[in-house]
Amino acid sequence: MTTAVSSKSPSPTRVEGKFMGTLVCWILGLGSLVSWNSLLSIGDYYYALFPNYHPSRVLTLVYQPFALGAMAILAYNEARVDTRKRNLAGYILFTLSTAALIVLDLATSGRGGVGNYIGICAIVGLFGIADAHVQGGMVGDLAFMCPEFMQSFFAGVAASGALTSGLRLITKAAFEKSNHGLRKGVMLFLAISAFFEFLCVLLYTFIFPKLPIVKHYRTKAAAEGSKTVAADLAAAGITKPIEQAEQFERLSTKQLLIKNIDYELDLYFIYVLTLSIFPGFLYENTGKHQLGSWYALVLIAMYNVWDLIGRYVPLIKIIELKSRKGLMIAIISRFLLIPCFYYTAKYGDQGYMIFLVSFLGLTNGYLTVCVMTAAPQGYKGPEQNALGNLLVLFLLAGIFTGVALGWLWIIGNGKF
Hints:
By secondary structure, the chain is mostly helical.
């Protein structure tokens, strides 16, 4: 039975499904990056196969132009792109691409070589396109819902890193002493990642659009002029035209860009710093220590765990940073970590490096959630969707710039 909801009806004081919606958003956030984090977490395997090709740096650099280019196109056309088709396309592409890594490794019997490396790079490019579909689509969608959904989504994004690091440590320990143990652990690890991506397809298709609270926010957005939620409303059984309370003229994408340039630059600078250090510097520039081959994996795991913790810190309202000026000052101050990492890698012990990496993750998660939840406040549904896409565009631009700048760490090492 289909229904129609008028925008003139008062907002309910309590809409059912908030807890389930928060949980589903967490899993969808996890799925938006679990494939990419899986690729980062098996860096030790790719360094064994391609020791001279800088896989952690090269694969990240390959990923970003596809993610940034696709995101720029989608952000420009966000008002005409169906959110449901966009998000489902992204999660399905993630599922197939992760499975393709397994197929490629099986087809080549786990050998190195340029041909295998190019194949992996091609799959990584598909990861980038999928990322642009999912992150921009989900952030735009959640921007006009309750802030808890946005926070939970980005907590899930960070959880994907913590989960993949934990699973990677377990699989490495379980298969370390067996024949071809490293490869067996990687295959099991990628299979688990593909399963999580497929779970996201099912949740977004059958569960999320039918939650009462989600239907409420999407109906409200449609009443304010949003055209991107039509397919999701149809999937929830709302197919009749929704009455619009008044003619709504939204701010243009350019106007939103200008009015929120500080928030957009906040995200850009957060990820310029983070990706100039993580993961390439941690794999290639931290030297050899007592942890041996486990050292880089431990550093990656510590970053991911503290990034996850940082994304829950803003739930403590007394320490949530909302000031636009305060956010900018805090984010610019993080660049002081660059000399800290340099001198710690050169003179410090592994304990100091683990502390620094933990702090990098904590501040990355905390500041990301503070910006993402504060920026959309005060706008109508279509504007919040557009702004969400712009924020993700600047986030990906920051990642791309950070990855490019990360190559500066290997200058003076005597080799490319």
